[in-house]
TrEMBL record:
Residues 54-312 form the G-protein coupled receptors family 1 profile domain. This is Growth hormone secretagogue receptor type 1. Receptor for ghrelin, coupled to G-alpha-11 proteins. Stimulates growth hormone secretion. Also binds other growth hormone releasing peptides (GHRP) (e.g. Met-enkephalin and GHRP-6) as well as non-peptide, low molecular weight secretagogues (e.g. Keywords: Cell membrane, Disulfide bond, G-protein coupled receptor, Glycoprotein, Membrane, Receptor, Transducer, Transmembrane, Transmembrane helix. It is a multi-pass membrane protein. It comes from Pygocentrus nattereri (Red-bellied piranha).
Length: 355
């Protein structure tokens, strides 16, 4: 992730030795003090446990129970899979934060590691955008959406989103690799010299940021239109009031999911842009600031992968009932949650009612 894309700028800063020294001192093996490393490791370990358990639970709940396999929940299952892949990369990420050189796993693992993180980033952003379009269609054209938005078509859309994400993350395979310094034998998994000097790294960072910013902009527009539609629905007849109430509950939860996504990902992309800019400019001050800010975005990166199941559990009664059923925990509200579909859960119901 972004914390290591800027390693080369740190090495540039360390290489500015006084003129009377024939050789610059070697850069340190770690870039941060021990207390900061311990704090980040503890936070990431907690997020790893919560995220893996939560996302695995989401996948199992949606896959196991037929009443949970709605079109909306298929998107949520895909997002949970993406988050699990992100957590699969966490041990390598933490290892590089503690000791970024030497890299012991070779060039193929280095490239695959960056590719998976980038692909999951894009897929999560596109999935949230597609889910929001689905919600807009369900609110604006409820009858038509119930007929046209089928599970088979949603599965096809999800596969297409993964394919687009893989293609958009493909250039990362050419931008990162195992680099060797002429003065020592240690290998480092980082952006290549050609990617930094040619400006390709900055270009890919901008494209990656746009893939997150543009869906977020679309979400703002769609949720504004949905809000206007629901506000007009308050003046409609009583038969549509219950459906509009369910829609308002579902949009409230999706808005919280989108807000959490933006708050977690915006610092990450801002810091990564600063890192790429400091790598190109060779600014010691910007490099130092971006490196320490990257620790915050580093934790937020994994928080974004762990927070969604927590939000589902807090705001969706039917999700809680399904989790209780999965783990054999009896709940007094489970029966009512499964019977009254429209009222008990804002999400995890029929295609016209979303999480």
């Amino acid at each position: 992730v972004g914390t290591v894309w800027g390693r080369r700028s740190i090495k540039t800063r360390m290489s500015h030795a006084p003129p009377h020294h024939p050789h610059p001192p070697p850069p340190p093996l770690t870039l941060f003090p021990l207390p900061a490393l311990v704090a980040v490791t503890v936070a990431c370990a907690l997020l790893f446990v919560v995220g893996v358990v939560g996302n695995l639970t989401t996948i199992v709940v949606v896959s196991r129970y037929r009443d949970m396999r709605t079109t909306t929940n298929l998107y949520l299952r895909s997002m949970a899979l993406s988050d699990l892949l992100v957590f699969a990369c966490m041990p390598l990420d933490l290892q590089r934060v503690w000791r970024y050189r030497p890299w012991p796993l070779g060039g193929a693992v280095c490239k695959l590691f960056h590719f998976v993180s980038e692909c999951c980033t894009h897929c999560t952003a596109l999935s949230i955008a597609a889910l929001s379009v689905h919600r807009y269609l369900a609110v604006r054209f409820p009858l038509r959406a119930k007929v046209s938005v089928t599970r088979r078509r949603v599965r096809a859309v999800i596969l297409a989103l993964w394919a687009v994400s893989a293609c958009s993350a493909g250039p990362v395979l050419a931008l990162v690799g195992v680099e060797h310094d002429a003065s020592r034998a240690e290998a480092e998994c980082t952006a290549t010299r050609h990617a930094v000097k040619s400006g390709l790294l900055s270009a890919v960072v901008c494209v990656s940021g746009a893939l997150v910013a543009l869906p977020a902009l679309c979400l703002c527009v769609l949720y504004t239109l949905i809000g206007r539609k629901l506000s007009r629905g308050r003046r409609a007849d009583a038969r549509s009031s219950a459906r509009d109430k369910n829609h308002r509950q579902s949009i409230k939860l999706l808005a919280v999911v989108v807000l959490a996504f933006v708050l977690c990902w915006l610092p990450f992309h801002v810091v990564r842009f600063l890192i790429s800019a400091s790598s190109a400019a060779g600014s010691p001050i910007m490099s130092l600031i971006s490196q320490y800010c990257s620790l915050i975005s580093f934790v937020l990166f994994y928080l974004s992968a762990a927070i969604n199941p927590i939000l589902y559990n807090i705001m969706s009664e039917k999700y809680r009932a399904a989790v209780c059923r999965l783990f054999g925990i009896h709940s007094r509200r489970r029966r009512s949650a499964s019977v009254t579909k429209a009222e008990s859960c804002p999400g995890l119901n029929e295609s016209t009612v979303s999480l």
